[in-house]
Design brief:
By secondary structure, the chain is α/β, with parallel strands linked by helices. It has a single domain, classed as Response regulator (Rossmann fold). 47% of the residues lie in helices and 21% in strands. The protein has five helices and seven strands; from the N terminus they run αβαβββαβαβαβ. The strands form two sheets. Strands 1-7-2-5-6 form a five-stranded parallel beta sheet, sandwiched between helices. A two-stranded antiparallel sheet has the order 3-4. Helix 2 packs parallel to helix 3. The longest helix has 21 residues, at 88-108. The protein is globular, with a radius of gyration of 13 Å. The termini are close together.
Amino acid sequence: MATRFRAIDGVEIAGEAEESGAALAGIDATGADVVVVDFRLTGGTGLEVLHSLAHSTSPVITIVLTNHSGAGFRQACLAAGAQYFFDKTSEFDLACDTIKRIAHERCARGLNYTGVHHV
């Protein structure tokens, strides 16, 4: 996935992690603007990351991109603070378009764009 994100014009990968604790530390250290989270992680779940980011003082846009796209998963992620939710299988291009739009909007408004942290 990160390879596809790197190919998006104007998007930089600020970090990657497979475990929730490492992800949160990396997000905090890099100051990423966008975090792409899968529901299932090696050490924990994407819900843990979403809950932590929702209560963080650092503003970050959270996007869930997962193969676990049933209604229950979607509702749980949105309730935990995800701003976007995409099915990897059928909505991957839409997720990439959303990331590109966010990056371009931030740059157009003169805001610094740090990049995407992939969890």
